[in-house]
Fold each of these.
Amino acid sequence: MYRLYTRPGSGGFVVEAALALTGAPFDQIDVPKKDPPDQAFLDISPLNQVPVLTLPDGQSMTESAAICILLAERHPEAGLAPAAGSAARADFLRWMAFMSSVLYPAVLRFFYARRYTADAEGVKAVKEAAITEMDRGFTVLDKALAGRDWLVGDTLSIADIYLVMLVAWHPDVERARTAWPNVERLWGKLRDDALMRKLNASHEMWPEN
Ligand SMILES: N[C@@H](CCC(=O)N[C@@H](CS)C(=O)NCC(=O)O)C(=O)O
């Protein structure tokens, strides 16, 4: 059985969605924020971050995008991703890497700004630059979604859920909803989705309609 280490409102959101879509059994541990963290948790998550997924063979992995891609690979029937070798697969891998390497770190720079400067006066500037970088990333994704129902291929994939998780973290969410109409269109669709509503009830990623 899988085991998901997570926390409400964290990147565990997308992994929980992926697991739910596979239908695979899993249990869930909500990791308390502790200082210092438990060594047992550091052993599986050296940066003390969630999500972590422990696989049925006992191996643990971090990195939300890698976890989602692995689940897609292990449960192809769930349709979390376009099939390997399909034309949409390249887009899927591209956007999963883009979101986890450009946007997620920009979100972290905003919420953990102190980590990103040695200058006690520098926090405000780090936050401002983080928002600018988020805006750049969402502008790219909005363009990629133009004229499309889903970010990749012709159907929902875990990349769509990853995207709405990220935009829900935007510090100025009202502006986000108007600045990127294609992202908002996708998000609006997912806000009405039964699984998203269920997950949102525990993660409180966005206010209910
Ligand atoms: N690169 C990691 C980032 C994970 C991450 O930063 N998780 C946040 C919650 S959304 C966390 O655990 N932050 C606590 C910390 O960094 O101390 C991923 O994609 O999974």
Amino acid sequence: MAQDVHCIIGASGQLGTEMALSLKAAGERVVLMDIKSPSHDGILDLPFEQTDVCDLQGLAHRLSKHNVSHVHHFAAALSARGETEPQWAWDLNMRGLLNVLEIAAGVDGLAQVFWPSSIAVFGPGSGAWAAQDGHRLPGTVYGISKNAGEQWCNWYHRHRGVDVRSVRYPGLIGTHAPPGGGTTDYAVEVFDHLNDAEPYTCFLAEDTQLPMMHMDDAVLAITQLMSVPRSALRCTEAYNIQAMSFDPATLFAEIRRHVPNFRYRCAPDFRQDIAAGWPGALEDSMAREDWGWKPTVDLPELVTSMIAARKGQPQLSQPT
Ligand SMILES: NC(=O)c1ccc[n+]([C@@H]2O[C@H](COP(=O)([O-])OP(=O)(O)OC[C@H]3O[C@@H](n4cnc5c(N)ncnc54)[C@H](O)[C@@H]3O)[C@@H](O)[C@H]2O)c1
């Protein structure tokens, strides 16, 4: 039987970099695709194809050339950038996903597709603790595209037999790549400003509670979800998954246990409105029952590992 070949589309981004490192460490065959080159040392030796996911022919050609069986489709416009460039965000998020699903459904097809949804599918009215089938009325272009994307995944599974699987990620916190323009980016950026002379300026109010997750658990969720038989999965849209929830004040208090002189100020900007429409936590019992979801990193561990990992490292550049 031919070995699985994994392709990460959006491989140069925050989640793509972590997934590439994980698949590489597991000895899997991996090909990376992105519109821009990867910059992390650990994955520079993996095959890379500069690819625009919105170019159906080019994407299909490269996937076929590498005999790709499994696609992890991460290329997307995130929430904050999406609000400033709504047409671009919609085109990228929809066209990219539809191209991947169309290729997956084609004659040579794909064995599996993973595509991440987001807590952004929920909007004002979903409640502080969003249920799996909670009220979804997204207030951002990003959230609208993720909500529509979930429906497309459901449609391609039911009508074209595509094995596409998804989770609703909260804010993701990792060390290897800069955040790409989301509403939870402060929780990554702050670790590059712990010893600044000036207080760190947080763009959310200090009592803004949001669900968050360490990248190790984000990658674990993919590995777990993709490895169970399809028949075990009741959800054909995207599973809620919860790891921890905190607000900036709680994160910064935990940081101060390690860096007593750390100072911050909060100056909420337009991202506060986005955050205000999102739930503070997700109810994830279906993911726990169906495929054994169980996060491994809590807030104290997250802060300890982020400080250790960022020590002596060049600052993660600002998103463009
Ligand atoms: N980071 C988070 O906190 C978070 C939370 C919830 C969901 N997600 C989802 O996870 C996925 C990955 O997020 P991320 O944080 O790694 O994003 P990111 O912005 O860091 O990375 C996205 C990558 O996509 C690439 N890209 C952009 N346009 C492209 C195109 N036309 N063709 C090919 N590649 C293109 C970018 O160059 C970038 O490397 C996205 O679907 C995102 O919505 C992320």
